[in-house]
């Protein structure tokens, strides 16, 4: 096949429609970047789930002398109360294992975590004794998602001060991560619609500008592919530039924000890595090609019917 | 089709040919265009554009298609080009039934048909040579072939030395010659001309008709739709007359207004 015509038409078409092509490129760039961000947030949420999920457990704090909740009216939890709690833990099928943390252990852990910054703080800390700490049961769950049964079973027992579930602490973080993810995907969806319509309009204008040539090509028996090829190439150029810009933006984000800032300074969670970034880039590349080539094929079919 | 039959100047050409089912020379009588009870109606129109038309055109024939506007001439040509499909009946072009032809084979069919229009349809930003070469480029012919046949064809249509001109530097007759060169450059089996002299003065038209006759003599079947009575009367070729979608006359060596 002689492709001179295709390439000269490609050049002409891009020159003729330069403003439309730029509009398509920008729309594709922005929408794909947002989709990529959504994908990264999704990967981050999964990573966080895996990281925290393995550590998720329920902590049952027992009453001590200073406890003020309704279950603790009798002060320090008795051995009988502890036995009831242990029986409840043993019989609940959500529980994988549990262990009792003594007051001394709790005190040691606390000393480790809290380092006094100045004299006042260290004097306050000095006044705290192991007997001020609470005994607690650290309960490992079979399925980190299933904790409500054991939580309610233990919560009302005498001698139980509070039941803490790490998930409650993480809930707002999950919530905002989800909001950001769906926000990015939602905005991206609107932009994707805009991109598809823009590609369609570009094809319509280009087909109109080329209608004489197209009419003659059909008449002399040029194949549909040959007629469509300049249009496909134009879309492909726009798609590749758009995908390139969006990939670049994502990789810069990975390099500067994730690897440059978040990873060195914060290890509360496992952060997304280059693998996740490349996976997102691959997906947006596919999406970008589909976004431009499918409307082009549909529209050229419609406007250039043999 | 035997020449003897054609000379008879009979009415009902089709019926006469139908009475000769066994041909002495089958190869010579293979029709390049055959309509079998073809009806074509367009959506939303009560009257059919073509109504139960049966006709054959043989290889190497020169046929005028005449009739008033709206008689069905354009529909007839569109069916041959497979720009439209018949509602009923069968249309064979170059041995293929066009309504059973897969879409991807349509370009192959059209490569065997050259088409010329009243309004020339040249590309204004290309030279004469480029306009003619375009028809070969877009069907993927090699450059060496194009460089050889385009000047030959321009010479055939009487445009030697004018290959470098732009279409708007040419007269109407010359522009139509370029269009004919473009239609003929791939040596089609059939040349369809839809009112090719409609925009031209009578003298120029004579030149174009001579050219079409010359092309016909190379063995190409020529089918020309026209309103130009003078040309039809002069040429004395086969005339198919359509009226309201029916063939009302099919006559060898006919004249334009025989019936009226």
UniProtKB/TrEMBL annotation, chain A:
Primary location class: membrane
Superkingdom, taxonomy of origin: Bacteria
Keyword Calcium: no
Gene Ontology CC entries for this record: plasma membrane
Record's keyword terms, sorted: Cell cycle, Cell division, Cell membrane, Membrane, Transmembrane, Transmembrane helix
InterPro entries associated with the record: ABC3_permease_C, FtsX, FtsX_actino, FtsX_ECD
Membrane topology: Multi-pass membrane protein
Subunit structure: Forms a membrane-associated complex with FtsE.
Recorded family membership: Belongs to the ABC-4 integral membrane protein family. FtsX subfamily.
Function of the molecule: Part of the ABC transporter FtsEX involved in cellular division.
Protein name: Cell division protein FtsX
Annotated source species: Nocardioides iriomotensis
């Amino acid at each position: 096949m002689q492709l001179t015509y295709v390439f000269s038409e490609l050049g002409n078409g891009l020159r003729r429609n330069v403003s439309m092509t730029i509009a398509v490129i920008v729309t594709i760039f922005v929408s794909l970047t947002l989709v990529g961000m959504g994908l990264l947030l999704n990967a981050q949420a999964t990573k966080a789930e895996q990281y925290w999920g393995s550590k998720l457990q329920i902590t049952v704090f027992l009453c001590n002398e200073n406890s003020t909740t309704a279950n603790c009216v009798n002060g320090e939890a008795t051995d009988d109360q502890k036995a009831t709690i242990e029986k409840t833990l043993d019989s609940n099928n959500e529980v994988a294992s549990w262990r009792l943390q003594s007051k001394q252990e709790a005190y040691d852990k606390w000393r480790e975590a809290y380092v006094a910054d100045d004299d006042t703080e260290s004097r306050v800390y000095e006044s705290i004794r192991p007997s001020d700490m609470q005994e607690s049961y650290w309960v490992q769950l079979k399925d980190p998602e299933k904790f409500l049964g054991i939580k309610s079973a233990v919560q009302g027992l005498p001698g139980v001060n509070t039941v803490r579930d790490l998930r409650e602490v993480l809930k707002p973080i999950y919530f905002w991560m989800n909001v950001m993810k769906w926000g990015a995907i939602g905005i991206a969806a609107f932009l994707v619609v805009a991109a598809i319509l823009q590609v369609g309009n570009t094809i319509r204008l280009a087909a109109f500008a080329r209608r004489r040539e197209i009419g003659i090509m059909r008449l002399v028996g040029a194949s549909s592919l040959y007629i469509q090829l300049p249009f496909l190439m134009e879309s492909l150029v726009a798609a590749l530039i758009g995908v390139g810009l969006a990939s670049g933006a994502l990789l810069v984000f990975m390099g500067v924000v994730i690897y440059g800032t978040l990873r060195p300074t914060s290890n509360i969670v496992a952060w997304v890595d280059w693998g996740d970034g490349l996976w997102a880039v691959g997906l947006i590349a596919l999406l970008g090609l589909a976004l431009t080539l499918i409307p082009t094929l549909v529209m050229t079919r419609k406007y250039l019917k043999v | 089709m035997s020449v003897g039959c054609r000379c008879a100047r009979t009415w009902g050409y089709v019926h006469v040919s139908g009475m000769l089912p066994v041909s002495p020379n089958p190869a010579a009588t293979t029709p390049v265009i055959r309509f079998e009870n073809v009806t074509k109606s367009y959506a939303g129109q009560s009257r059919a554009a073509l109504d139960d038309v049966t006709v054959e055109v043989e290889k190497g024939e020169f046929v005028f298609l005449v009739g008033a506007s709206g008689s069905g001439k354009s529909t007839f040509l569109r069916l041959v080009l497979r720009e439209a499909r018949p509602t009923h009946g069968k249309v064979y072009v170059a041995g293929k039934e066009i309504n059973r032809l897969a879409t991807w084979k349509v370009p192959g069919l059209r490569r065997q048909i050259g088409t010329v229009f009243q309004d020339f349809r040249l590309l204004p930003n290309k030279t004469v040579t480029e306009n003619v070469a375009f028809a070969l480029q877009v069907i993927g012919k090699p450059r060496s072939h194009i460089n050889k046949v385009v000047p030959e064809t321009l010479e055939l249509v009487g445009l030697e030395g004018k290959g470098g001109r732009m279409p708007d530097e040419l007269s109407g007759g010359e522009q139509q010659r370029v269009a004919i060169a473009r239609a003929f450059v791939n040596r089609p089996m059939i040349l369809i001309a839809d009112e090719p002299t409609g925009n031209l003065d009578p003298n120029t038209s004579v030149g174009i008709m001579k050219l079409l006759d010359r092309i016909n003599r190379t063995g190409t079947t020529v089918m020309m739709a026209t309103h130009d009575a003078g040309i039809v009367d002069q040429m004395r070729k086969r005339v198919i007359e359509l009226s309201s979608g029916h063939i009302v006359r099919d006559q060898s060596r006919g004249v334009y207004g025989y019936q009226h």
